[in-house]
Design goal:
Length: 459
């Protein structure tokens, strides 16, 4: 049977910010990366929300190993305090990074990974499993299917392609597929300036940052397009979670997002509907939607923008031995640290290869996908994950264990559950209320909390 050879690469699935960072860290460790990207170019998922402005400044959006690589080729970092749009992340950072001579030949765009397994072994085969190379089945740009062998795999394929359904029981609402096929339900974070929303009534469903972005973009559009109406529906009894930490948020742009949203609701520019649990979508003449809630209420709208979050695609990993948290689909040890029902403030201990490991040796899920269904991932978290993973794959256990993570706090230190309800017991024992742990080490500028990361309130 085939055994792992030293010339087998480490396969990285996805050329988003975290996949490319993984490649940069692997190169620094003398390991050979091979990045397989489904899209036509790097940063394909970020490109889809290129019109959205990030709430974290450049300082938090750059991976240190990637910056070291770029600077060797004369790249100048953007102003650290500037807030980029998604498109700028791709054009000013990911594309130059992918074009460096070190990475250019190691990235295959238009290559979609269809499945990951071990050569000559299915998931049930244990004997000699760790010595067998990984086998990735890959669809190439011409449609042909090829197989690639790898010594290790880092799955950084994100979650963008798999939005969570509108139905509140985890399944699509009745009629959701038909309404989506009729383009009455749009893509998440649809660019409302691209046409189809002016002078119409649009319903945004969801209670996180994506919803806030869409609602605010629509209110902006209504200034130039009379008759544009914005309806915003949340499952929660109150939108406290979406309003966020305001001025207490250490990422001011993130705090302002919620504050602006609140202002728009209070001014009447946005009609807020709370406690709305979508049950059924009825298409009227192929032109409009009647959205039925479980309690009998209905909303009639022209368009619906879903902002209900994302899910990881685990189907490509069905032959890999995973150990996942049953609630959030994150690695079992990470799940309880990020489960939004118990960690509304998003606090998470620094974590690297040890926490991200699965029973499948040398296999890791990193980046947005590592958080499974939890919505609070930040790029900086992923950069630290892949630094630690690369160290582990290189056999540098001390460096893999010395996780260095420091992120700005949201200012949302309350027991607000994922359904948006405030729970007094949770408020008393909210994760942010625990004493500050001893700093682990410092990866970002001072003035921010150390040793644990407090992350976004969700996409
Ligand atoms: C609207 C929005 C705003 C955000 N704002 C911020 C912010 O301000 N700050 C912050 O830190 N984070 C933010 N995030 C969260 C997160 O950091 C980003 O989503 C980030 O892009 C995640 O990086 P990633 O590399 O893990 O995944 P992605 O950027 O999603 O990249 C995954 C890549 O894998 C590819 N791929 C998918 N499936 C396959 C396959 N089967 N085979 C091969 N390739 C595949 C995709 O095409 C994609 O290019 C935001 C997210 C969203 C959606």
């Amino acid at each position: 049977m085939t055994a792992i050879r030293t010339d087998h690469p480490v396969a990285v699935i996805g050329a988003g910010p975290v996949g490319l960072a993984a490649a940069a860290h692997l190169l620094e460790r003398g390991l050979e990366p091979l990045v397989l990207e489904a899209g036509p170019s790097v940063g394909a998922a970020v490109r889809k929300w290129g019109h959205v402005r990030l709430f974290s400044t450049w300082r938090y959006n750059l991976d240190p190993a990637s910056v070291r690589l770029l600077e060797r080729h004369g790249w100048e970092a953007p102003r650290p305090t500037a807030l980029p749009y998604g498109a700028q992340i791709v054009e000013d950072y990911l594309e130059p990074l992918a074009a460096t001579p070190e990475l250019a030949g190691r990235i295959r765009t238009g290559h979609r990974v269809l499945a990951v397994t071990r050569k000559d072994r299915d998931r049930g085969s244990s004997l000699g499993r760790d010595q067998a190379p990984f086998l990735l089945r890959v669809q190439r740009p011409d449609g042909a299917v090829a197989e690639v062998l790898a010594r290790a795999v880092i799955d950084a394929s994100g979650t963008w392609e798999h939005r969570a359904p509108l139905g509140t029981s985890g399944l699509p609402a009745l009629g959701e597929e038909d309404a989506t096929a009729a383009a009455l339900v749009t893509a998440p974070l649809a660019d409302v300036t691209a046409g189809g929303f002016g002078g119409r009534r649009t319903l945004v469903v969801g209670g996180g940052h994506s919803a806030a972005n869409s609602v605010l973009a629509l209110t902006q559009l209504s200034r130039t397009h009379p008759g544009t109406e914005v309806v915003w529906a949340v499952r929660a009894a109150a939108p406290a979670r979406a309003y966020g930490g305001g001025s207490a948020d250490e990422l001011p742009a993130r705090g302002q997002l919620g504050t602006r949203l609140q202002t728009m609701v209070e001014s009447g520019a946005v009609r807020l509907v709370t406690g709305f649990r979508t049950e059924r979508l009825e298409t009227i003449d192929g032109q409009r939607l009647r959205v039925h809630a479980a309690d009998g209420r209905t909303l009639e709208v022209d368009r619906l923008i879903p902002a209900t979050g994302f899910r990881p695609d685990l189907s490509i990993l069905s032959e890999v031995r995973l150990d996942l948290d049953p609630a959030v689909d994150a690695p079992r040890r990470l799940g309880p640290l990020i489960d939004p029902d118990f960690h509304s403030c998003g606090t998470v201990e620094p974590h690297g290869a040890a926490v991200l490991a699965h029973p499948e040796k040398d296999f890791y899920v990193a980046g947005m996908k590592s958080y499974g269904r939890a919505p609070t991932f930040l790029m900086a978290t992923g950069y630290e994950q892949v630094r630690s993973i690369a160290a582990a794959l290189a056999g540098d256990a001390p460096a893999a264990e010395a996780v260095e993570l420091e992120l700005p706090a949201t200012g949302v230190c309350s027991g607000i559950g994922s359904d948006g309800s405030a729970d007094e017991a949770a408020l008393a024992g909210a994760c942010c209320s625990t004493p500050e742990p001893t700093p682990v080490s410092i990866g970002f500028p001072t003035g921010l909390r150390h040793g644990r990361a407090t992350e976004g309130a969700g996409t």
